[in-house]
Amino acid sequence: MKLLKCPMNGVRPLSEFVFGGEVREMPDPNTCSDKEWATYVHHRNGAPGMKKEWWYHGPSGTWFIAERNTMTDEVARTYLYGQEDKQ
Amino acid sequence: MSTVTRQTPLAYAQQRLAPKMTVLNGMEVAIEYTSAELEHKRKATLGICDVSCFPRFGVKGLNVVQWLKEKKVEIPPQANSWVKQGDTLVLRLGLNEFLLEDQLDGQACAALCDATQPKAYGLYKVQRNDTALILSGSHVQELFSEVCAIDLRDAALLPNTVVMTQMAGISVTLLRQEFNGENVYRLWCDGTYGPYIWDTLLEIAEELGGGAVGLSCHYKEML
To answer: What CATH number does the domain located at A3-86 have?
Structure first.
């Protein structure tokens, strides 16, 4: 069984979680170029490596961030958004 | 104005057991399924009791702790913990979300419902339509091992901890409490999943020698 640590609820089976995609910074739609906006909307970086990802713990409704190596599927750490420095 | 008597979310699932019903807090609830003697045996082995009729109050928002303190509600110190204040369970479901439940026919939740609109504090009342159960007996861990992936034994589950996990594939909130001198587990899930979780748990309970127990098995005053 694969396990993931929710920063609020502790270690749980992966089946309790939903993947929410890579954490990506949205460019300011009022000031960015069309190319930058199109890249943000349509392009994803599929190259394997250490990535920040959104994950959701269903039973408690908790969104959090996991730093995961998508090549090895190892999770380095998880934390709530905005609490990166507290971990 | 007429008052509508609500049905427990488990009403149709319980129909085949033909329980003796009563109305508590405006909801029909099963107080007895069979003889008291047999129900007490079930309770000691693995009893499942429907307590969906208990009054509940949910609230969430950034200033919820301050608002509840002003209402003289005891606040559990950290997320995912609970305290008992009089006859009311106070569950802290996250940093800023709470569930309160009166036991049997307490009035604390009704008072909070009628209190000053929490919207003024930037809070939201969370509508609760839970299926709520009491699980008791010596074989309850065997039941959990069939439907739940995490360790809920006494040694692993610290007192006053609220667990939010999945059981038989659906999201549940769970805690362990001492009640009438014995350890019991309290379980809440969304009411629409009630018949499924009831049928699933009851099937396992009956295999293990337990079964459904009525409210009067835990609360003698209901007889």
So the answer is: 3.30.2270.10
